[in-house]
Amino acid sequence: MELADLLAEESVIVCTGLRSKNDILEQLAAVAARAAGVAPDGVYRAISERESLGSTGLGNGIAIPHGKLAGIPRVIAAFGRLEQPIEFDALDDQPVDLLMLLLAPTGAGADHLKALARVARILRTDAVVSELRDTLDPARLHAILTRQVEATQAA
Predict the structure, then answer these.
(1) What does residue 62 show for φ and ψ, rounded to 5 degrees?
(2) For 79-135, how does the pLDDT look when each residue is reduced to its tens digit (9 = 90+)?
(3) What pLDDT digit, counting tens, does each position of 8-42 carry?
(4) Which of 37, 81, 94, 114 has the greatest number of C-beta atoms within 10 Å?
(5) Check: CATH 3.60.20.10 for 3-154?
(6) One of 66, 68, 118, 142 is an active-site residue; which one?
(7) What gap in Å lies between CA 38 and CA 138, rounded to an integer?
(8) Phi, psi torsion values for 103, nearest 5 degrees
(9) Nearest-angstrom CA–CA distance, 56 and 68
């Protein structure tokens, strides 16, 4: 499973002026909803329900909010780079500025888990995280994320 297949360039956004976890989840839900062709409120509800079980803030300023939604054809990703980090209830109690939202069809257990593992592997790489934090250009962010998938597979 390649991140380039899940993450369209138009699904990468830079966010300014957001002040809360709900703000960024709403923004990313709207982006993912457009990519999936569904209503944003359903995406937001799916992500929020998963988030209520425990924060998806992994630490080091990174979060991977995710959820499942009936009626979408495949796993969809949306990436947000925040100009200013926000409180996200992360495991290390540090604010978050890099978020990859994953939305999977109901019943897509293996694909959902593979996508989560792929994203976690990419975002655990210090060099990638540093590159992501060095730019506010959505096209560059997309290139960094998708290039790393290809490099990971070649290794």
Answers:
(1) -120, 140
(2) 999 999 999 999 999 999 999 999 999 987 788 888 999 999 999 999 999 999 999
(3) 999 999 999 999 999 999 999 999 999 999 999 99
(4) 81
(5) no
(6) 66
(7) 23
(8) -125, 125
(9) 14
pLDDT at 148: 52
Q: For residues 141 and 20, give the distance between their C-alpha atoms in angstroms, rounded to a whole number.
A: 22
Average of per-residue pLDDT values in the chain: 91
Q: Indicate the pTM of the whole model.
A: 0.91
Mark whether 66 is an active-site residue: yes
Q: Which tokens belong to 2?
A: 């390649």
- Contact status, residue 96 vs residue 86, Cβ threshold 8 Å: yes
Domain ranges for the chain, please list them: 3-154
pLDDT of residue 108: 77
